[in-house]
Write a structure and sequence with these properties.
InterPro entries: Integrase-like_cat_sf. This protein has about 160 residues and is mainly alpha-helical. It has helices at about 5-15, 20-25, 55-70, 85-105, 115-130, 130-140, 145-150; strands at about 30, 35-40, 50. Helix 1 packs across helix 3, helix 1 (about 5-15) packs across helix 4 and helix 6 crosses helix 7 (about 145-150).
Length: about 160
């Protein structure tokens, strides 16, 4: 498995993709000139275009170049196009687990999951924009409650005032 796969996987998570979206991402979804990647969404998320940081543009460009040597585009960036959805999901999870273990973030005492990256992205967006709606939009969520939970924002007071 080439090193560009792990970097591409992490870049997609950092862009705001969820696991199912990472597995479905293809070279056709990339707009490296604009520094963006598109997702069609999933059963729980909406279609959207997510900005890439400089590192994301770089590593997804490397990945696209690597895969482009294999044959005609478009091609999936981190999973096989011929794999069943459950196999793709497992592959994404396994790849993320490799990243977490190799980086030392995930240990026997502490487990790191893709959702932890999503929480990081949610908090980062909230800190940068101050807008919960931007967190929801960027992550493809239709629920502000879910966005608030991911961003660790307590926005309900917990009851009616009497």
């Amino acid at each position: 498995m080439p090193a560009t796969r792990h970097a591409a996987l992490l870049a997609l998570f950092l862009a705001g993709f969820w696991s199912a979206e990472v597995g479905a991402a293809s070279s056709a979804d990339l707009d490296l000139t604009a520094g963006a990647v598109h997702t069609k969404g999933s059963t729980r998320t909406l279609a959207r275009t997510c900005p890439l940081d400089e590192w994301g543009v770089y590593v997804l460009g490397l990945r696209a170049t690597h895969l482009g040597r294999r044959g005609a585009a478009p091609y999936r960036l981190v999973a096989s196009a011929t794999s069943a959805p459950n196999v793709v999901q497992s592959s994404v999870g396994s790849g993320f687990g490799d990243i977490a273990r190799r980086s030392g973030l995930s240990t026997r005492a502490r487990k790191v999951e893709p959702r932890d990256i999503t929480r990081y992205v949610a908090r980062k967006i909230l800190n940068e924009t101050g807008q919960l709606s931007e967190v929801a939009r960027h992550l493809g969520l239709s629920s502000l409650d879910v966005a608030a939970g991911l961003a660790d924002l307590q926005w309900h007071t917990g009851g009616d005032a009497a």
